[in-house]
Amino acid sequence: MSPSPVFPAQDPDYAFAMDATPTATARINKFNGTNFHTWKFKMQMVLEERELWEVTSGEVKLEHCTTTADQATFKRKSRKALAIICLAMEDSQLPLVRSAKDAHDAWSRLEGHFEKKSLANKLFLRRRFFTTMMDEGDDVLEHINKLKTLAEQLDAVGAPVSEDDLVITLLGSLSESYQFLITALESRADSLSWELVTSRLLHEDMKRKEQGGGGVDGAAHGQGQAFMTRDNKRKGRP
């Protein structure tokens, strides 16, 4: 028999270790009031894995249950989901859900608090989205993920960003050393998809790292090496 999940004292930042099956274990950081978007996604995956998401999201409601047995099952699942949500939150955040009557109520309160659909919140997120810039030396993947997360947050509050705007904003936010790549992408006859642009960016980043550096110096080094190779070929040198 596998041991019951424990709450290790040395890991206060982890909510719990959950055993849905003897071989499946999930660990999630307790929510401390920041980065709700990421915590929400992880919690949804946890609840999905434990077959509790339908009662949490409101997809299945008590009034949908026609038999006494179904109603009892719904209430049991809802209590279990509520417990998981609360155990995955820091003490400072518990007042938001302490009086929730069920899992769906708790989830709705959290979404309403951290994903406000007010005009002020939409303006705040759009300003962050359009003003996020990449400095020389910044990690490319981290910058891409930052913009993508902001776009997802805007979608969650009812202000979705089109793929064209996402691509245009990403290209416009890149550091100066990526100007050659931007020009090459802009000259393409076909439309630019998010997948294509991010793939080219990550490939370029990988090449720069292999050539010994990123940023302006790395880009100049790579371009210089390419020029010397072409020059040597013209002169017949190996």
List the helices and strands and how they pair.
Blueprint: E1 14-21, E2 24-29, H1 36-49, H2 53-57, H3 68-87, H4 103-114, H5 119-131, H6 140-156, H7 163-173, H8 179-186, H9 194-210, H10 215-234
Helix pairs in contact: 3-4, 5-6
Could you explain the architecture of this structure?
Pfam families: Retrotran_gag_2. By secondary structure, this protein is mostly helical. It has 2 domains: 14-114, no CATH class; 119-234, no CATH class. The chain has helices at 36-49, 53-57, 68-87, 103-114, 119-131, 140-156, 163-173, 179-186, 194-210, 215-234; strands spanning 14-21, 24-29. The chain has a two-stranded antiparallel ribbon with strand order 1-2. Strand 1 and strand 2 (24-29) form a beta hairpin. Helix 3 crosses helix 4 (103-114) and helix 5 packs antiparallel against helix 6. The protein starts with 13 loop residues before the first strand and ends with a helix. Residues 1-10, 17-25 and 216-238 have low confidence and may be disordered.
Largest sheet descriptor: 2 strands, antiparallel
Shape verdict: elongated
Tally the helices: what do you get? 10
Q: In what range is the share of β-strand residues? A: 5-15%
How many strand elements? 2
What is the share of helical residues? 55-70%
Q: Which structural class matches the secondary elements?
A: mainly alpha
Rg result: 25 Å
Mean of all residue-level pLDDT scores: 83
Strand arrangement in the largest pleated sheet: 1-2
